[in-house]
Amino acid sequence: MMNLKQNLTVLFWLYRQKAKADGKAPIYARITIDGKYTELSTGKKATPKSWDANNKQILGSGLEVKLANQKLTQVQTDVERIFNGLQMHFREVTPAMVKNVYLGKPAIDEPKPIKPAPKNEQTVLEVFDEFVVRFEKRVEKGNASPGTLKHWRSTRKKVVAFIRYHFNSDDIRFSELPDTFAEDFYDYLTLYVKKPLAEVTARKQLKWIRQIVKIGVRKKLIVSNPMDGFKCSGGDVEVIPLEFWQVEKILHKSFTVERIAEVRDAFIFQCFTGFAYQDIYDLTPENIVLVGRKKERWLVKHRGKTDVGEMVPILPIVEELITQYRNHPYCITHNKLIPVNSNYRYNSYLKEIADLCEIRDITGNIRKLDTHDARHFFADMMLNNGVPLEDVSKMLGHKSIRTTMRYCRVRKSRISESVARVKQKLFTKSGELRSSLQFG
Fold it and tell me: Facing residues of 57 across strands?
């Protein structure tokens, strides 16, 4: 019997989602062998502040901390010893086999009798497919967005890949979903796919699949929701909008290649309307509405992503672009206000524009410009010029003002102006502190 050459790694991590009232969360050991993994509890806990994620140990002094770190070292030693021992008896060792021996069980579990599934019990993908079919009908009737349908189909593909990877199966019944389903799926998306997702993106995927699991709970296909307690939101990510001078630089840059110039114009159109890519792509002359006694020209439509109405007065720079492209062959043929490429090409050209215009981020590197940067710029521009939050929320087509609040950002210039007023009040021109008597 020729043994396979296998690689074992043991990683300790803090299970923050299971933190108790005292702030301490359990420390788990992830046993990985050639990409496949399982996890076990070490029986030790730590607070997020005391956990050293780089060195995988608890910070601090004292006997309790010392003993806890010794336990982690012992777990690693035991796992490695068990792995080496199993390699002497089995051609291929799996993480589950190592975990079983560590817990005092036989390396290979005895097969459990398969319970016949109830006639009415559906699988995860069957329920997912039913949901997608219903959503397709909503899209056909105009009650839902094609873009959202695309997201649902994309999420389904990820679920299919995860089931094949983690369960070695084409599908699973709801009753077979483990309590660690959310954590397992999250780890798969952020650690074990070819192109791991960012934390925020992965949690958004979990938020989508949670809706499918909830359907299973409502149908009584599963007793409890294994995703309860898992935080699907990834926290607030600070949005760093483009500076006004950077947008001006893009606006005034001369491009000899027509396709680049058209993408630049579409981006500027977004910067001064706040419309997302999907919405600018769908704009037609019918979206121009005359508002009020003065018959102001506004752009009015339902946002594709949220189906919430968004309305924006047409600013002069936008009016110029509408006039410029009125007789463009693409706009005439497709009844559009402005020519817009596919999302992939649009973003590809924007990266080229950022390079040509030397648009840099806060680290000094060329910024990875994309269509959503224009929307962030519009929100930042409006909020920093005194437009009320509620009005900006309506213009952006947000369902909730809480979403719009992510765009609120205190600029250095505003801080400088505020402190300058305080400085003038507290200090003389020579820099001396004024007497408190002068303040009445």
Answer: 52
The per-residue pLDDT for range 382-426, each reduced to its tens digit, is 888 888 888 888 888 887 777 777 766 655 555 666 677 777 888
Dist. CA 174–CA 394, nearest whole Å: 40
- φ and ψ at 27, to 5 degrees? -100, 125
With vertex at residue 124, the alpha carbon angle to CA 121 and CA 129, rounded to the nearest 5 degrees, is 105
| Helix (H), strand (E) at residue 309 | strand 309-313
Q: Considering only CA atoms, which of 300, 298, 283 is closest in space to residue 335?
A: 283
The architecture in CATH of the region 244-409 reads Orthogonal Bundle (1.10)
Residue spans per domain, the chain: 8-102, 124-218, 244-409, 413-440
Per-residue pLDDT at 4 exceeds 80: no
> In CATH, what number does 124-218 get?
1.10.150
Residue 379, CA distances (Å) to 139, 363, 375 in order: 29, 23, 6
- Residue 173 to residue 244: CA distance in whole angstroms: 53
Asked if residue 352 lies in contact with residue 338, where contact means CB atoms within 8 angstroms, the answer is no
Query: In the prediction, which pLDDT does 241 show?
Result: 86
Asked if 325 contacts 332 with a C-beta cutoff of 8 angstroms, the reply is no
- The total of other beta-carbon atoms located within 10 Å of residue 28's CB is 19
Neighbours of 189 (CB within 10 A): 23
Chain mean pLDDT for the chain = 84
Q: Looking at residue 372, what is its pLDDT?
A: 86
* 25-33 and 36-46 beta bridge pairing: antiparallel
